[in-house]
Amino acid sequence: MSPLPSPAKPAARRLSDDGGAAGQTEPPLDITEQEAMEIVRALRRAQADGFVYESAVGLKVSVLDGTAEPYRVMVDTIGEGAVVLDQRGIVLFANPAMGRLVALNADQLVGHRLGGHMKPAADEVLSGSLPALMKGGTLDVELRRGDELVPVHLSARPIHFAGFDAAIVVATEKVNCPATH
Protein backbone atom coordinates (compact mmCIF):
# COMPACT_ATOMS: atom_id res chain seq x y z
CA MET A 1 0.00 0.00 0.00
CA SER A 2 1.46 3.34 -0.98
CA PRO A 3 1.54 6.22 1.51
CA LEU A 4 -1.17 8.87 1.32
CA PRO A 5 -0.22 12.18 -0.29
CA SER A 6 0.48 15.09 2.01
CA PRO A 7 -2.31 17.69 2.48
CA ALA A 8 -0.13 20.35 0.88
CA LYS A 9 0.23 18.29 -2.29
CA PRO A 10 -2.97 16.27 -2.98
CA ALA A 11 -2.87 13.50 -5.54
CA ALA A 12 -4.18 14.45 -8.95
CA ARG A 13 -5.20 10.87 -9.68
CA ARG A 14 -8.93 10.51 -10.32
CA LEU A 15 -10.63 7.61 -8.61
CA SER A 16 -13.29 5.47 -10.23
CA ASP A 17 -16.41 4.26 -8.44
CA ASP A 18 -17.03 1.36 -10.84
CA GLY A 19 -14.62 -1.11 -9.28
CA GLY A 20 -13.66 -2.20 -12.77
CA ALA A 21 -17.19 -3.31 -13.67
CA ALA A 22 -17.99 -3.51 -17.37
CA GLY A 23 -20.74 -1.32 -18.77
CA GLN A 24 -20.36 1.39 -16.10
CA THR A 25 -22.48 4.44 -16.98
CA GLU A 26 -21.32 6.74 -14.17
CA PRO A 27 -18.26 8.96 -14.78
CA PRO A 28 -15.26 8.52 -12.47
CA LEU A 29 -15.47 10.23 -9.10
CA ASP A 30 -13.89 13.66 -9.27
CA ILE A 31 -12.06 13.42 -5.95
CA THR A 32 -8.47 12.92 -4.94
CA GLU A 33 -7.19 9.85 -3.16
CA GLN A 34 -6.78 11.96 -0.01
CA GLU A 35 -10.44 13.05 -0.10
CA ALA A 36 -11.53 9.44 -0.56
CA MET A 37 -9.44 8.37 2.42
CA GLU A 38 -11.01 11.14 4.56
CA ILE A 39 -14.45 9.74 3.72
CA VAL A 40 -13.32 6.21 4.57
CA ARG A 41 -11.83 7.38 7.90
CA ALA A 42 -15.06 9.20 8.84
CA LEU A 43 -17.10 6.10 8.04
CA ARG A 44 -14.76 3.83 10.04
CA ARG A 45 -14.88 6.12 13.08
CA ALA A 46 -18.70 6.26 12.89
CA GLN A 47 -18.44 10.03 12.41
CA ALA A 48 -20.73 9.58 9.41
CA ASP A 49 -23.05 6.92 8.08
CA GLY A 50 -23.23 8.13 4.51
CA PHE A 51 -22.18 10.77 2.05
CA VAL A 52 -23.50 12.95 -0.77
CA TYR A 53 -21.84 12.88 -4.18
CA GLU A 54 -22.56 14.20 -7.64
CA SER A 55 -23.21 11.67 -10.38
CA ALA A 56 -24.15 11.92 -14.05
CA VAL A 57 -27.82 12.12 -12.99
CA GLY A 58 -27.36 14.67 -10.19
CA LEU A 59 -26.72 14.51 -6.44
CA LYS A 60 -26.86 11.06 -4.85
CA VAL A 61 -26.75 9.99 -1.22
CA SER A 62 -24.90 6.84 -0.21
CA VAL A 63 -25.75 5.49 3.24
CA LEU A 64 -24.42 2.53 5.19
CA ASP A 65 -27.51 0.39 5.71
CA GLY A 66 -26.80 -1.07 9.17
CA THR A 67 -25.94 2.15 10.95
CA ALA A 68 -28.57 4.27 9.25
CA GLU A 69 -31.63 2.10 9.90
CA PRO A 70 -32.56 3.41 13.39
CA TYR A 71 -32.21 7.01 12.19
CA ARG A 72 -34.19 6.33 9.01
CA VAL A 73 -37.05 4.77 11.01
CA MET A 74 -37.08 7.71 13.44
CA VAL A 75 -37.00 10.36 10.71
CA ASP A 76 -39.63 8.57 8.62
CA THR A 77 -42.06 8.19 11.53
CA ILE A 78 -41.84 11.52 13.37
CA GLY A 79 -44.79 13.86 12.92
CA GLU A 80 -42.67 16.91 12.13
CA GLY A 81 -41.66 17.69 8.58
CA ALA A 82 -37.91 17.46 8.03
CA VAL A 83 -35.73 18.31 5.06
CA VAL A 84 -32.05 18.66 4.33
CA LEU A 85 -31.40 21.84 2.34
CA ASP A 86 -28.31 22.88 0.47
CA GLN A 87 -27.14 26.50 0.51
CA ARG A 88 -29.42 27.35 -2.42
CA GLY A 89 -32.53 26.06 -0.62
CA ILE A 90 -32.68 22.89 -2.73
CA VAL A 91 -34.18 19.88 -0.92
CA LEU A 92 -31.68 17.01 -0.73
CA PHE A 93 -33.87 14.83 1.50
CA ALA A 94 -37.44 15.07 2.79
CA ASN A 95 -39.29 12.85 5.24
CA PRO A 96 -42.90 11.70 4.71
CA ALA A 97 -44.29 14.28 7.17
CA MET A 98 -42.80 17.11 5.09
CA GLY A 99 -44.43 15.61 2.03
CA ARG A 100 -47.78 15.61 3.84
CA LEU A 101 -47.33 19.30 4.73
CA VAL A 102 -47.27 20.17 1.03
CA ALA A 103 -49.53 17.34 -0.22
CA LEU A 104 -46.75 15.60 -2.16
CA ASN A 105 -44.76 12.43 -1.90
CA ALA A 106 -41.53 13.27 -0.05
CA ASP A 107 -39.48 12.10 -3.05
CA GLN A 108 -41.19 14.75 -5.19
CA LEU A 109 -39.61 17.48 -3.05
CA VAL A 110 -36.04 16.28 -3.60
CA GLY A 111 -34.13 18.35 -6.14
CA HIS A 112 -36.53 21.31 -5.92
CA ARG A 113 -36.39 24.55 -3.95
CA LEU A 114 -38.35 24.50 -0.70
CA GLY A 115 -39.44 28.06 -1.51
CA GLY A 116 -41.30 26.74 -4.53
CA HIS A 117 -43.87 25.35 -2.08
CA MET A 118 -44.66 28.75 -0.59
CA LYS A 119 -46.60 31.76 -1.73
CA PRO A 120 -44.28 34.16 -3.61
CA ALA A 121 -43.88 36.61 -0.71
CA ALA A 122 -42.87 33.79 1.65
CA ASP A 123 -40.45 32.43 -0.96
CA GLU A 124 -38.77 35.86 -1.04
CA VAL A 125 -38.57 35.87 2.77
CA LEU A 126 -37.04 32.39 2.73
CA SER A 127 -34.53 33.39 0.04
CA GLY A 128 -33.48 36.45 2.05
CA SER A 129 -33.35 34.49 5.31
CA LEU A 130 -31.60 31.40 3.93
CA PRO A 131 -28.06 32.37 5.03
CA ALA A 132 -29.24 32.89 8.63
CA LEU A 133 -31.37 29.75 8.52
CA MET A 134 -28.38 27.74 7.27
CA LYS A 135 -26.46 28.87 10.36
CA GLY A 136 -29.11 27.48 12.70
CA GLY A 137 -31.83 30.10 12.60
CA THR A 138 -35.60 29.91 12.73
CA LEU A 139 -38.29 31.31 10.47
CA ASP A 140 -42.10 31.39 10.37
CA VAL A 141 -43.56 30.89 6.88
CA GLU A 142 -46.59 29.44 5.15
CA LEU A 143 -46.29 26.34 2.98
CA ARG A 144 -48.77 25.57 0.21
CA ARG A 145 -50.82 22.40 0.60
CA GLY A 146 -52.85 22.51 -2.60
CA ASP A 147 -54.99 25.68 -2.30
CA GLU A 148 -54.47 25.88 1.46
CA LEU A 149 -51.70 27.83 3.22
CA VAL A 150 -50.20 26.01 6.21
CA PRO A 151 -48.36 28.14 8.79
CA VAL A 152 -45.14 26.45 9.92
CA HIS A 153 -42.19 27.26 12.12
CA LEU A 154 -38.87 26.30 10.51
CA SER A 155 -35.90 25.59 12.74
CA ALA A 156 -32.55 24.60 11.30
CA ARG A 157 -29.24 23.15 12.31
CA PRO A 158 -26.21 23.39 10.04
CA ILE A 159 -24.39 20.24 9.05
CA HIS A 160 -21.09 19.85 7.25
CA PHE A 161 -20.21 16.52 5.79
CA ALA A 162 -17.48 15.52 3.35
CA GLY A 163 -16.97 19.15 2.34
CA PHE A 164 -20.68 19.76 1.77
CA ASP A 165 -22.53 22.53 3.66
CA ALA A 166 -26.23 21.93 4.29
CA ALA A 167 -28.85 22.31 7.01
CA ILE A 168 -31.35 19.99 8.59
CA VAL A 169 -34.62 21.94 8.73
CA VAL A 170 -37.58 20.85 10.83
CA ALA A 171 -41.01 22.25 9.92
CA THR A 172 -43.51 22.34 12.78
CA GLU A 173 -47.09 23.02 11.77
CA LYS A 174 -48.54 25.85 13.85
CA VAL A 175 -52.00 24.83 15.01
CA ASN A 176 -54.41 26.21 17.58
CA CYS A 177 -54.53 23.70 20.37
CA PRO A 178 -57.54 23.70 22.68
CA ALA A 179 -56.79 24.47 26.30
CA THR A 180 -56.71 21.47 28.61
CA HIS A 181 -57.86 21.51 32.20
Helix and strand content put the structural class at: alpha+beta
Mean pLDDT: 75
Question: Could you list the spans in which at least 5 consecutive residues all have pLDDT below 50?
Answer: 1-24
Assign the CATH topology of the largest domain: Beta-Lactamase
Sheet having the most strands = 5 strands, antiparallel
Number of strands: 7
| CATH class division of the largest domain | Alpha Beta
Major β-sheet strand ordering: 4-3-7-6-5
**Silhouette:** globular
- The total of helices stands at 5
Could you characterize what this model shows?
With 181 residues, the protein is α+β, with helices and mostly antiparallel strands. It folds into two domains: 1-77, no CATH class; 78-173, PAS domain (Beta-Lactamase). The chain is built from five helices and seven strands. The chain has helices spanning 33-44, 65-77, 96-101, 106-109, 120-134, and strands at 50-55, 58-63, 81-86, 91-94, 138-145, 148-161, 164-173. It has a five-stranded antiparallel β-sheet. The longest helix is centred in the last third of the chain and has 15 residues, at 120-134. The protein is globular, with a radius of gyration of 19 Å. Residues 1-24 have low confidence and may be disordered.
